[in-house]
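Our platform keeps sequence and structure together, in a single record for each protein. Such a record has a labelled line for the sequence and another for the backbone structure tokens. Nothing more is needed to write down the fold, since each code stands for a local backbone conformation. For reference, a complete record is included directly beneath this paragraph:
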Amino acid sequence: MDPTVETVTRRIRERSAATRARYLAQIERLAGRRRGVERMGCANVAHAFAAMPANDKLRIVAEKAPHLAVVTAYNDMLSAHQPYERYPALIRDEAARRGATVQVAGGVPAMCDGVTQGLPGMELSLFSRDTIAMGTAVALSHDVFDAALLLGICDKIVPGLLIGALHFGHLPCVFVPAGPMGSGLSNGEKAKVRELYAQGKVGREELLAAESAAYHGAGTCTFYGTANSNQMLLEAMGLHVPGAAFVHPAETLRDELTRSAVASALAITAKARYTPIGRLVDERSIVNAMLALLATGGSTNHLIHWVAVARSAGILIDWSDFSELSAITPLLARVYPNGSADVNQFQAAGGPGYVIRELLDAGLMHEDVSTVSGASLREQTRMPTLGASGGVEWAALPQQSGDESVVRPAARPFSPSGGLKLLQGNLGRAVIKVSAVPEDRHVVEAPARIFTTQEAMLAAFDAGELERDVVVVLRFQGPQANGMPELHKLTPPLAVLQGRGFKVALVTDGRMSGASGKVPAAIHVSPEALAGGPLARLRDGDFVRLDATTGSLQALVNEVEWAARALAEIEPLQAEDNAHGLGRELFAGMRRNVSSAEQGAISWL
């Protein structure tokens, strides 16, 4: 095992000793109870199973058959989640074949960030994670289940389901993915059309045609954003049936993998192999997820989400842990926006299994962890195929990468260090995704131009006011200010400016997500401006230095002057706009109570 991985894991374990012990004690208390139907009153039992077929009621009550919960994020708004419409019937059928019963315990909300990008709805996006966690808790609160199947894929949905499930840590849980859509217009071509549109060289008709060719069917979007990073991390934590992440929704193998998820849930429910999710998710599996994220240049959102996930299991991690691991984690994958390939090409070249195997062999992952397959993490390196009998069979991956322009062995990585870095300085702490940024852009020093809304920045671009070396600062975009929206609308104009030869960077207390691209962006700046963070001291024209090589984010202002400056305040009209309309009033309590981005943007502590 790599000594840095050992050191970071040990530090996390020691830091978390008290909170983890309390968490595990609660699991033991809940796991020691009698089954739900045996400890509940007769009226409770009758209500719970009133709508079920008579033979299923008999199985649960008299035969004491295992009873599975399904928590689903199905809706038709998310292309990735649309296939879930038919999953409950498939799961019930497989459970019945195995002598078990199933109820859809509840549904959770799932919003598409692609639909709400740059619009007021995006201000609910981050908080939807904790809403999903609460919805999961409501579903499982009926407390009659022996295990749970969790149906979710996209950005905030997987972290939310996982946080909710970890608060029922005594239950065995298996995540059930649905796979990516087929490859359409390449991500690179889509990005080019967006940049042309930003310059006024193509119109809305051409832009819509390109976007529709890229996002064209059921399944996850094919770039390596938060949704597909979620799937990589779940594979690395052993919470999927091995190799389930990136099989197309329409393939027969996909249905068989879903059936296998039912079998896995039942297997780890049995006394001999009882593996509740709260025990499975320990400090080693959290570190494995962090390493998988870094080795693939995954979504920056997970520097927020996995802090919250870990906290739900009594485990305390921070950005310094990520940064220390990133320094020794080789970058093994180039998937858009870190490269030109999409996730289907990533899967064909070896996919998650190849990356996990390379990290294990290099001593960069903990192998001796629990998984839903009942084996060590090594099982997650095997590729599922459709066997002659119609069921799933697993085989060893080829030793060589299927395409070294997409995935590489640890001995010949794209980069010796991971795709994410911590930035620190007198502007606070921030993160940057460097895996897609050209090396000659890792250091940017330029005067700041400060904005407080995306619309104001876009208007300045359209007016030609940013045709120079510039550090665009967008503040009052943190969790307390407006829910910390993603700021993808800024990417095309910033890329245009960079393409014209200017030194350009973005500094913000908002998010950019997995679509962070070739423009250097210091994001998640903490503390945020509204909470008194130093970003509120910055003034137009101040020189800012973003240095991803040394991990520095500095306002180049005299220390005495800097300390004496008053903090800028959010405009009353902007604060009012951030708080009202399109449901934003309902999230006021979350904005008031939310922790910082580095603390996981948690609203429930």
